[in-house]
Amino acid sequence: MVLRRGARAPALAGVALTIADRPGLDFQTRDLTADFAYVRHGHRGRRGNYSDSELAEWAQRIADWGRAMDVYAYFNNDWELFAPRNARKLRRLVERVVAGPT
Prior knowledge:
The chain is of the alpha/beta class and 102 residues long. Helix content is 32%, strand content 16%.
């Protein structure tokens, strides 16, 4: 399936649009097209490492989506092991958002 700039993703039974977070994909939509969401975190400008503010932004978005569906988040592998660190931090941040203020 090819999506053109400005087009909306069609709802296909059980097919989730991969929501890619990668610089240069400005046309990427964040349409939720299934009963689950799949987010693929790509390389960031810091050799693939996400900043705390970027992770916090994604944590809020994932927590919001997670109220209605399962959300799967994948970090692209990198040679400096940022991906597993970023994934663990994102998970902690999502858990904090879901738990609410203490």
